[in-house]
Amino acid sequence: MFTGIVEELGEITAVENLGDACRFRLRGPIVTEGAKHGDSIAVNGVCLTVVEHEGDEFTADVMAETLDRSSLGALGVGSRVNLERPTAVGARLGGHIVQGHVDGTGEVLERKPSEHWEVIKISLPADLSRYVVEKGSITVDGISLTVVDAGPDYFTVSLIPTTLDLTTLGLKQPGAPVNLEVDVVAKYVERLLASSQGAGK
Fewest CB atoms less than 10 Å from the CB: which of 26, 37, 116, 182? Predict the structure, then answer.
């Protein structure tokens, strides 16, 4: 489990095509500290497994399913990525519960800078819109954010200077794809309500 609090802005240093998958080599001095084979690291919100670790770099295999359902397939050598290690038991939950299981992708539609923050508008797939509410939580490229405005096919978030400086959202321009993970609690509530309604018939 992750919290959506990005630990560092890493970089892809190599991409190896494996046919029905690919292997990324990524640089991240903070997340590789103490890393070992089999550990999980979230890369732009996608939970990946460490295959090898050497120095401040690690490799991770990405299946075709993940490449197709996330924005990782659009990345290449030199791409910057948000990195986060799983939260430790007993640690503070600084963001919200994030699984690292991408529900879909959106696209940066608009950026509106202000003096102390920036508002970003992001497209929202129709099948995810029911899980996104004003003042609710959403994960964008692995970043735990609060929804400002929720429309039928978009939502907006306000970003403070720290988020702009230390994550990929400070770099992405209109047209750029982003990974989205909705609040898992909303999905569980929906399933439970559907079950209870079905039992009452």
Answer: 116
| Distance between CA atoms of residues 109 and 153, nearest Å | 11
Using CA of residue 83, residue 168, residue 132, residue 195, what is the dihedral sign? negative
Q: Which two tokens stand for residue 169?
A: 């959202």
Beta-sheet pairing, 177-182 with 104-113: antiparallel
pLDDT digits (tens, 9 = 90+) for 161-186: 999 999 999 999 999 999 999 988 88
| Residues 11 and 27: beta-carbon distance below 8 Å | yes
Measure the CA–CA gap between 36 and 108, rounded to whole angstroms.
34
Is the separation of the CB atoms in 106 and 147 below 8 Å?
no
Structural tokens at position 30: 């903070």
176 in Cβ contact with 107 (< 8 Å): yes
Provide long-range contacts, Cβ within 8 A and 24+ apart, for 146-152: 148/119, 150/124, 151/124, 152/124, 152/126
Kind plus residue range of the DSSP H or E element containing 14: strand 8-17
